[in-house]
Amino acid sequence: MEVDRVASDSENVAADEKQVEVDGAGDAAASQPEKLRRKNKKYSRSNSKEAAAPVTGVSSFPKYRSWKNSRRPRNGHGRGLPKKGGAGGKGVWGVPGSELLEEYVEDANDPNYDSEAVTNGDVEFKQVIVEADPEEIARKSEPVILEYFEHGDTNAAAEDFLEFLTAMRSHVVCETIVEIALEHKPSHCEMASVLISDLYGRVFSAKDIGHAFSRLLDKLPDLALDTPDAAVLLSNFIARCVADDCLPPKFVQTQAARGDELNPPARQAIHRAETLLSMKQGLVRLDNIWGVGGGIRPVKSLIRQIQLLLKEYLTSGDLAEAMRCVRDLEVPHFHHELVYETVLLAVEAINSSVEEQLCMFLAELRRCVIVTPDQMDRGFLRVLEDMSDIVLDVPLAYIMLDRFVERCQLRFRLGANVVQRMPTRGRKRFVSEGDGGAIKDHALKLRE
After folding, report:
1. Which ranges are annotated Gly residues under compositional bias (predicted)?
2. Angle subtended at Cα 334 by Cα 355 and Cα 230, rounded to the nearest 5 degrees
3. For residue 108, is pLDDT > 90?
4. Is the pTM of this model over 0.85?
5. Which one of 46, 51, 217, 426 has the minimum C-beta count within 10 Å?
6. Contacts by 133-138 with C-beta closer than 8 Å and gap 24+?
7. Cα 127 vs. chain centroid, distance in angstroms?
């Protein structure tokens, strides 16, 4: 009986141990489900940061691996954008350039604190504009004004002035414009008046223009040394600015009230400006105070002026004055008309002294390069083309032209085309000299 009890107890113990072993194995299998599941699965890697699509029979990375290094908020709030604009994270100082936007406040307890530093808040910064010297502004303005005389674009000139000009020195530019124009011809003075009118309100004001003309009046004796008629020209500028509403009429009255304080040339200029402004319809006439330019002047008016110029030269004999008058015409494209009128006058004069004087005139034009060789030849060719009409009024036109061309050839060289086209007319011989022809034969038969 005792033996049976021991055997049954041993069997129960063995059964319990077997059950325990089975339960332990089950618990181990239950505790390691992930490990057992991974043995039957394979994973593929993708080169992109996004999780690759699972291939048949192959699963993707776990979800937590795809956003492991992401800087996006993980609390479910926000728009899904990186935190701090992508500047967050460990060891990151912030968005590049953010250090420039931060205001640094110095600490008085800082060992590097400097009580005399300019960043302590007790120093106020103000913008200071350094004004250039008047001589420097005048030096920079001169090439701009000379370039404007070439192209005539007031907008380009204004942009060039604004690059180096300040409001405190605007009057220097107006003063420089007038000073340079005084040394040039009337067409440039007209361009200078137009430039002052266009720059008014953009580069300088009426006060600046008045200050500039006041300084010019004070410097007028010195300007007259280089330009003898500076007083007359300056009065024209003052009257034109008043007509263009760039200068108030009160300026002329104020300067006239100064009386003996002004120098004699300045008093002359102010008195003439008052006369110009007080004329009947003076403001309208002042628009053409500098005359009409050669390119705008009508052709008939140009021809008339050329004829008057030649007659005045023949009367006075002043060759230098004639050259100055030709330059003042400012019509280099129309100089062939000047040559044409000169040659025509020599042919019609039938006077050797007049021919010599006009030949000297053409030679001087050629020597000073006032008239180009092309314009010179063109003027002679025009006379040759009109000889059929000229000979009706001047029967000896061919003889006079031939003599004048030979005289000119001795002083300067004419073009080959002019010499080749000159008519060759032999001297007519009478019947008695043996050139009777049919008439002579007929006379001999009658005698027989």
Report:
1. 83-92
2. 95
3. no
4. no
5. 426
6. 134/169, 134/172, 137/164, 137/165, 137/169, 137/172, 137/173, 137/176, 138/172, 138/175, 138/176
7. 31
- 278 vs 280: CA distance, rounded Å: 7
Say if residues 360 and 395 touch (Cβ distance below 8 Å): no
Average pLDDT of the chain, as a whole number: 78
Distance CA 276, CA 63 (A): 96
Residue 146: its pLDDT value, please? 93
Helix 352-367 vs helix 319-329: angle between axes, to the nearest 10 degrees?
A: 60
Handedness of CA 200, 201, 204, 206 (dihedral sign): positive
Type of residue at 216 = L
- For 351, the enclosing helix (H) or strand (E) is none
Q: By three-state DSSP, how is residue 204 classified?
A: strand
Report whether 82 contacts 72 (CB < 8 A). Answer: yes
| pLDDT of 16 strictly over 80 | no
Alpha-carbon span 442 to 122, nearest angstrom: 130
How far, in Å, are 338, 362, 365, 401 from residue 327 at the CA level? 12, 14, 10, 27
| Backbone torsions φ then ψ of 334, nearest 5 degrees | -115, 15
**Which residue bears the tokens 């048949």?**
56
Extract the tokens encoding 231: 């007083």
Q: What is the mean pLDDT of residues 426-436?
A: 46
As given in the structure block, the two tokens for residue 370 are 């006032």
Give the Cα separation of 234 and 232 in Å (integer). 6
Which domains does the chain show, CATH number per domain?
A: 134-288 (1.25.40.180), 299-421 (1.25.40.180)
What are the residues facing 200 on neighbouring strands? 204
Q: Compute the average pLDDT of residues 410-434.
A: 70
The length of the chain, given as a count of residues: 448
Task: Specify the pLDDT at position 2.
Answer: 45
Task: List the structure tokens of 333.
Answer: 């494209």
* Residue whose structure tokens are 């006077």: 351
CA distance 136 to 432: 88
**Is residue 142 a contact partner of residue 110, using CB atoms and an 8 Å limit?**
no
Query: Minimal CA–CA distance to 338: which of 355, 326, 328, 327?
Result: 326
DSSP, collapsed to helix, strand or coil, labels residue 221 as: helix
Instruction: Give the model confidence (pLDDT) of 48-88 as tens digits.
Output: 444 444 444 444 555 555 556 666 666 666 666 666 666 66
β-sheet bridge partners, residue 59: 43
Average pLDDT score over residue span 383-409: 91
